[in-house]
Amino acid sequence: MADKKTTTKKTVKTSEVKTIAQLNADLVAAVTDLTDSRRSHAQGELVNPHVLTTQRKEIARIKTAITAAAHEGKESK
User: Fold this and answer.
1) DSSP string, 4-34
2) What integer pLDDT is reported at residue 64 of this predicted model?
3) What is the chain's alpha carbon radius of gyration, rounded to the nearest angstrom?
4) Is the dihedral of CA 65, 60, 10, 1 positive or negative?
5) Distance between CA atoms of 60 and 68, rounded to whole angstroms?
6) 20: closest CA among 58, 57, 64?
7) What tens digit of pLDDT does each residue of 11-59 get?
8) Is residue 2 pLDDT above 80, yes or no?
9) Residue 20 contacts residue 45 (beta carbons within 8 Å)
10) What is the distance between the alpha carbons of residues 6 and 20, in angstroms, rounded to a whole number?
């Protein structure tokens, strides 16, 4: 029988916790990078189009972190 795969949850270190303002700044930078990559892809200059998928997923992670931080702030009140 095949071994069962186990996954480990990524734990966020306290030093890695960012404020909502920092996350918004990261979001703006990520969206700008995605826009530049899409432009390069349309012109045929982008060598690795998988970058587009990676950048979209990173934007989703940042938006999720912003939402979680917003909900965390509401619960503490």
Assistant:
1) PP---PPPPPGGG---HHHHHHHHHHHHHHH
2) 95
3) 17
4) positive
5) 12
6) 64
7) 555 456 888 999 999 999 999 999 999 999 999 999 999 999 999 999 9
8) no
9) no
10) 32
Amino acid in the structure at residue 43: Q
pTM greater than the 0.70 cutoff: yes
The distance of Cα 12 from the centroid of its chain, to the nearest Å, equals: 14
Distance separating alpha carbons of residues 19 and 25, to the nearest angstrom: 10
Determine the Cα–Cα distance for residues 20 and 23; give it in Å rounded to an integer: 5
- Residue 70's identity, in one-letter code, is A
Domain 18-76 of CATH type 1.10.287: yes
Kindly list the domain boundaries of the chain, sorted by start residue.
18-76
Task: State whether residue 73 is helix, strand or coil.
Answer: helix
Q: What is the DSSP letter of 12?
A: P
44: left (phi over 0), alpha (psi -120 to 50) or beta: left
